[in-house]
Amino acid sequence: MRNRLCAFGLLLAALGVSVLFARGYPSTKAQYSTELHLDAGSILCANEKLSDPNFARSVILIVRFDPDKGAEGLVLNRQTEIPISRVFPKAKHAKDPVYLGGPVQISGVQALLRLTEKTADAVQVVGDVYVTGAKELIDKSIDSEADASKFRLYLGYAGWTSGQLEAEIRMGAWSVIRGGAKIVFDPNPDSLWPRLTRESRTQIAFARFGLLPALS
Questions:
Q1: What is the tens place of the pLDDT at every residue in 121-174?
Q2: In Å, what is the CA distance from 9 to each residue of 5, 16, 82, 148?
Q3: Which homologous superfamily does the CATH classification assign to the domain defined by 7-208?
Q4: Most distant CA pair in the chain: distance in Å?
Q5: For the chain, what are the domain ranges?
Q6: 123 Cβ partners below 8 Å, 6+ apart?
Q7: SS3 letters for 61-87?
Q8: β pairing state of 42-46 and 59-66
Q9: Run of H or E including 170
């Protein structure tokens, strides 16, 4: 599939965050985040004209956001062909794929997981979805054979400096929607981008005629 990356492709992706300000984006309105509140838990959906190979047709969960420090996110729809057991050799039973979270610090490991209560080893992103880089918690989740609907492992992340992401959104590189566990742990991540793109267009079209509220 288009979004699947082989091991060599995974390594080649570690080239750093590319500049996204390309020409040709359509004009944007409130539905495309110029008036939306951007925060941890926001979902970024790449504009179809975004050609940067690191982010083309990507869906990104913002896991950390600070107007003064910038933003970090994890790409949700970049499954690799690398099983978790390749990253954690002792977990030979772990056959679920690792995800490419982004081109920054590709050797770093983070996980998204669903928890029933808060823990000092993870940061709440939205609802019961948490992000963690704590090895002990990741090991515990792998050892418990946590289902892919509750636990996913990521290499690298996407990063923006202060004001950079907001500028990209104003230019139309990204549309922003509110997400949750249903999107974060979607069972068919390879088709997530086209489905969210279609839904966004439909919602916006109806909203312009006052038939449905716009995505918010």
A1: 999 999 999 999 999 999 999 999 999 999 999 999 999 999 999 999 999 999
A2: 6, 14, 11, 23
A3: VC0467-like (3.40.1740.10)
A4: 56
A5: 7-208
A6: 40, 63, 64, 130, 131, 132
A7: EEEEEECCCEEEEEECCCEEEEEHHHH
A8: antiparallel
A9: helix 164-170
